[in-house]
Design a protein that fits this description.
The structure is a homodimer. By secondary structure, chain A is an alpha+beta fold. Chain A has 2 domains: 3-82, Arc Repressor Mutant, subunit A; 91-137, Dna Ligase, domain 1, CATH 3.30.1490. Chain A is built from 5 helices and 5 strands, in the order H-H-H-H-E-E-E-E-E-H. In chain A, the strands form 2 sheets. Chain A has a 3-stranded mixed beta sheet. A two-stranded antiparallel ribbon of chain A has the order 1-2. Chain A is globular and about 50 Å long. The two termini of chain A are 31 Å apart. The interface between A and B is medium-sized, with 33 and 33 residues. Strand 5 of chain A pairs antiparallel with strand 5 of chain B. The first copy, chain A, binds a DNA duplex through helix 2 and helix 4.
Chain lengths: 138, 138
DNA sequence: CCTTAAAACAGGAATCATTCCGATTCACTC
DNA sequence: GAGTGAATCGGAATGATTCCTGTTTTAAGG
């Protein structure tokens, strides 16, 4: 997702244009990996050294709810990444060494829901973990 | 998995037979759901009110490493359940209301790994969330 | 521009799950 | 029944996340 798309969504939902949001979004753009609140904070060091975690988490949560960021738990920590292809359902391979991700277009749900009659499916999680080609070499 | 099987595995690996381990394992047997360390502690109230979280987590981690328990992160918290069918790979539907689980024999990995050449797959997670038939009615 | 109300923020305290640590107790072996 | 390393206890420490309160900033209207 581009920064323009992100801002369009934010303004459609009456969120204000602030410096912090701008910097956070820039941090995520063009990164194909999941990142933590701490990594955001470190990145902000130049721009706004005094930013509080409250602000970071509040915005990350907002972005996630609006579909601007994708969110997942890795080792009990919240991780976020730019929504790569809005509207197109997909999953990720996640490199356990460098954190880089790779999109997986297949979704296992289609062939499985048939076997869950009377169940009300709300969501699912499918992630593959391992080493990406670059990290395999090392 | 039965308690006998669990104890066989523990003794094969030189773990001692303690009262705490016995009570914890009994707590998990015959429960088809994921449980937290706190729930374990509450259950121990009768048997050993003074048990420390250190002991609980240490044993849960041990059981998990030995394949006696299955482990997953739900909302950033560690959850454990008795290994239902040792050796048989499977996944779970997890009820977000009552926590009950349902085994899903299908594994999405088989048809997908072909599309990850040069990647080194270490593991994967596939879980379906929603309401079980009983909780749908309410 | 200037004013104003609501939104956003900073800073620090609080919370919650989990882990660490030093001292004590226990389970198994001889 | 004594010795030894494993297991445990209790409480402090940690680390991520959230809460709280007062202050600043944004966007809109006059």
């Amino acid at each position: 997702m581009t920064l323009d798309e992100a801002w369009r969504i934010l303004q459609e939902n009456q969120f204000k244009r602030t410096k912090n949001r701008d910097t956070i979004l820039k941090f995520f753009s063009n990164k194909d990996r999941y990142l933590t609140a701490l990594e955001v904070k470190n990145f902000m060091a130049d721009d706004n050294p005094g930013i509080s975690f409250d602000t970071i988490y509040r915005n990350l949560s907002t972005f996630s709810e609006l579909g601007i960021l994708e969110e997942t738990d890795l080792n009990g920590e919240r991780h976020f990444r730019m929504q790569c292809d809005p509207g197109v359902h997909h999953h990720h391979f996640i490199c356990t060494a460098c954190g880089k991700t790779r999109s997986i277009p297949h979704c296992p749900m289609e062939m499985i829901t048939v076997n869950l009659p009377d169940y009300e499916v709300e969501g699912h999680k499918f992630e593959i973990y391992g080493k990406c080609p670059l990290c395999v070499q090392k």
